[in-house]
Amino acid sequence: MLKDITFGQYFPGDSIIHRLDPRMKLVLIIAYIVLLFVADGLFSLLIGVAMVALFYALSKLPWKLVIKCIKPIMPIILFTAVLNIFFVEGDPIFEWKFISVSGKGVLTAVLMCIRIICLIAGSSLLTYTTTPIALTDGLERLLKPLQKIKVPVHELSMMMTIALRFIPTLIDETQKIMAAQKARGADMESGNLIQRAKALIPILIPLFVSAFRRADELALAMECRCYHGGEGRTRMKQLKMTAKDLFAALFVALGFATVILMNMYGPEVFRL
Amino acid sequence: MAENIIKTEGLNYVYSEGTPYEHRAISDVNIEIEKGSFVGLIGHTGSGKSTLIQHLNGLLKPTAGKIFIDGEDLWANPKDIRRFRFKVGLVFQYPEHQLFEETVRRDIAFGPKNMGLSDEEVEARVLEAAKHTGLTEDYLEKSPFELSGGEKRRVAIAGVLAMRPEVLILDEPTAGLDPKGREFILSEIKAYHEKTGATIILVSHSMEDVARFASHVLIMNHSKVAMFGKTREIFKRVDELCEIGLEVPQISRVFAKLREKGIDVPESVLTVAEAKEAMLKLLDKGGNSDA
User: Which end of chain A is more exposed for a tag (fewer CB within 10 A), N or C?
Assistant: First the structure.
């Protein structure tokens, strides 16, 4: 149940994608999302599909992870598709009573679906191949300029690091407590909504108690090691851009340029 | 031959199958545990002890293999699995983390209530379980969160005892307690065993505790059953145990060394009391031959 959630999960590996600088990965994924929305035709969007497919191949992750991350958003994809098919106006190709479907509507629906799938697949790849710690580290460095306008960047990223760090711990803890209550005959699988909500009490109370205890202990442990915020703090792992990061950036830039060129001079079929 | 209360056939369990985190926790476990025995379960961290015991009350479903409780297949009817959870009581590590009710009384009553017993029966069982764990009446109205660590643990164990399980499994029930608390919990378990005739499985890292209480010892190593047999027989195999990286009780080691030196002492000495007896006998014999 809980262990089936893959979004935001890290899958260890040693591929070139895993070893890219987290800052570069963050910037590139943003660029990639922009690219998906800049592309205005089926052919230019297929470049986006090819790019994410290539990244997955390079990451050497099992392909079924792609399906796993898309599954939970399937309802959203279907909803978007249906909405676009029926509500985008254009020359009708199919009419029945008050329902009319236009060619433009179908095309929009297809493009939208591809966009959403690529978007989720791409951003999932980021979390699949980057440890949460590296990710927040990269984010902190990228957001550093905001410190000038008094945004507490370090504190925010420390909060995020701690939150991410404790997600698996809390999932673990939840499973342990669930097992312990089940061993005492707690029934969580049957009953109506109210009974099921009530069945959560024996799990939530111990979970909150332990979360608070952990927070206390962590605060104490951090103070014992003289943590006093971000000022003058150095890092154990320095982030360094290398040739492969530059290469990745060039690759995405190339994809971007192709998409723009396709938008300008590409074939006029399947275009919005 | 006494009846077997627990029997497993080719039990296997794999965590997170099909992901990079895949990990075989237990493989090909075949054991038979006699009714009324007291089994000490020993093994290094990560040897599969905790996974094994969670199979015995149906919390984990084996990837392959079968479990029989009292001759009944545990997974014959998955809808019926709760029945076995009342029959096989499982006390987890640090069970005090599972407490949630407003009063100790209500927390202990959680298990029996889930069994669907009448209010009087629940109350009777709460009182009985509280007595077993040395909790007096005035504890029952307190909040479990205001108790000390050792007291909380006793409440949590009482919560399982109140279901009157025929098999009681405890996963390191003395971890993190002071010597007095340890002694108390262990003697409680022994008393429950003697009074009710329940089968006990005690997961422990302390060879001394296992030697003192257990009739049988089950040793897990690298997710397999390394040894299983009568306590005395197992602790004779000092060399094999050392190979696994486990130790025999200190006093057994002393006596094994004595035998190596050619002194005629019994082969298996498990406790200090036995050692004393053996030494006295030896001195007696020695004294006689001198005379």
Answer: N
User: Can you give the pLDDT at residue A3?
Assistant: 53
Residues paired with residue B202 on neighbouring β-strands, in sequence order? B40, B170
pLDDT of residue B291: 40
Higher pLDDT, A102 or A217: A217
ipTM of the complex: 0.85
pTM: 0.73
> How many Cβ atoms from other residues are within 10 Å of residue A249's Cβ?
17
CB contacts, 8 Å: A12 with chain B:
20
Q: At what angle do helices A153-183 and A201-224 cross, to 10 degrees?
A: 140
Q: What is the pLDDT of residue A1?
A: 44
* Nearest chain A Cα distance for residue B47, angstroms: 18
**pLDDT of A26 over the 50 cut:** yes
What pLDDT is recorded for position B286? Answer: 64
Average pLDDT over residues A206-220: 93
Nearest C-alpha neighbor of B232 from the set B246, B261, B212: B212
The domain segmentation of chain A, as residue ranges, is 1-130+241-272, 132-239
Q: Band the pLDDT of B128: cuts 50, 70, 90.
A: very high
Partner residue facing A185 (CB), from B18, B82, B99 = B82
Distance, first Cα to last Cα, chain A: 41
Is residue A44's pLDDT more than 70?
yes
- Give contacts of B92 with chain A, Cβ < 8 Å: 176, 179-180, 183
Looking at the complex, does the CB of residue B89 fall below 8 Å from at least one CB of chain A? yes
- Among A8-12, B34-38, B178-182, name the one with the lowest average pLDDT: A8-12
Distances (CA, A) of A245 to A19, A49, A125, A191, B283: 9, 21, 16, 54, 79
CA distance A137 to A41: 36
From B98's Cα to the closest Cα of chain A, the distance in A is: 6
Distance from CA of A94 to the nearest CA of B (A): 45
By C-alpha distance, which of A165, A185, A195 is closest to B111?
A185
**pLDDT tens for each residue of A145-176:** 998 898 888 888 888 888 878 888 888 899 99
Is the CB of B92 less than 8 angstroms away from the CB of A176?
yes
3-state secondary structure A213-251: HHHHHHHHHHHHCCCCCCCCCCCCCCCCCCHHHHHHHHH
- The size of the A-B interface in CB pairs under 8 A is 63
Nearest to A202 among B91, B92, B110 (CB): B110
Tens of pLDDT, residues B178-189: 888 899 999 999
Contacts of B231 (CB under 8 A, 6+ apart): B40, B210, B211, B214, B215, B216, B217, B270
**Which residues in chain B are closer than 8 Å to A182, comparing Cβ atoms?**
59, 85
Q: Check if the beta carbon of residue B282 is closer than 8 Å to that of residue B263.
A: yes
